[in-house]
Amino acid sequence: MTVLRISILFLLAAVAEIGGAWLVWQAVKENRGWLFAVLGVMALGAYGFIAALQPDAHFGRVLASYGGIFIAGSLAWGIIIDGFKPTTWDWVGSAVALVGAAIVIFAPASQADAAA
């Protein structure tokens, strides 16, 4: 259940952060209006709360591992929403980031962590 919870929270966090940033981008770069900016700021605020719901108590570990999710999610958002065509290196970099994220968040706790 923990792996499922972590995965769902990372997915929700990515939608909130990437979607929020995209809305602000649309407001500023594409002159889509202040409503986009306000909705984007609200989504970015929601991202912070969603990230705080992760079961791991270590802020640095959660945000470091989320970084891989953010990279892959940003590419996916670009493909789906903006018609972005990733290069082979985009795919490779995204895969490396996801492997790194999995190592950070799912690695067994060390004896030092367990004693703390």
UniProtKB/TrEMBL annotation:
The keyword Membrane applies. It is a multi-pass membrane protein. It comes from the Bacteria. This is Small multidrug resistance family-3 protein. It comes from Microbacterium natoriense. The keyword Lipid metabolism does not apply. Keywords: Cell membrane, Membrane, Transmembrane, Transmembrane helix. The chain crosses the membrane at residues 6-25, 34-53, 59-79, 91-109. HAMAP family: UPF0060. Belongs to the UPF0060 family. One of its GO terms (cellular component) is plasma membrane. It is found in: Cell membrane.
